[in-house]
Amino acid sequence: MKGRNRWVARQVRLYRLDRNPLRRRWDRIEAFVVAIVLVLSMAGVPFAVRLGLTVYEQGVTSERSGRWVSGRLVSNAPAARWADPEGGLNTVKAPARWPLADGGSGTGMVDVPEGSKAGSPVRIWLDASGKPVTKPPERATTVAKAVVAGSGVMLLGFGTLLLAYGATRCLLDRRRHTAWEEEWAAADRRWHKGPSI
142 vs 54, 57, 58, 103, 139, CA distance in Å? Predict the structure, then answer.
């Protein structure tokens, strides 16, 4: 913990804006860029959280807007083409019909165990638009999508800021080295001039 506190204190001393006469113009520009990167990083947190919450709310709405219906297969499902190595049932797409709330009927392709016979009952999950989907949305999937969206935006934003800082630092380091070389050359000329008589 002490090592981390020392590192933080050293970074604060390095990048603070002060009137230190040894701090050059390039050092002040870098300190300003670091401050901007920190501010923009912190400003991105609420945006990322809001995006994650929006994705979560959309997922929950999707979970609640669908419904289960009972239907029947219109025709036989295709027979087995391969064996499941884990011993489970393979599913295939087959046409089914189900009743709608307005008294009509809906039809579409649904997942059923292979080899199912025509007229077999099937449970079908309909999304908000009334279309059959493979399976209903799960809360774990909703949470995972929200976390990925929020953290993805944070990582992308922070990565972009770090790249911008890195490019700025490279430019500033070149300026620093050029300035150092010029100052050393000037000092060298003064030192080799020798004393004037």
Answer: 11, 9, 8, 33, 5
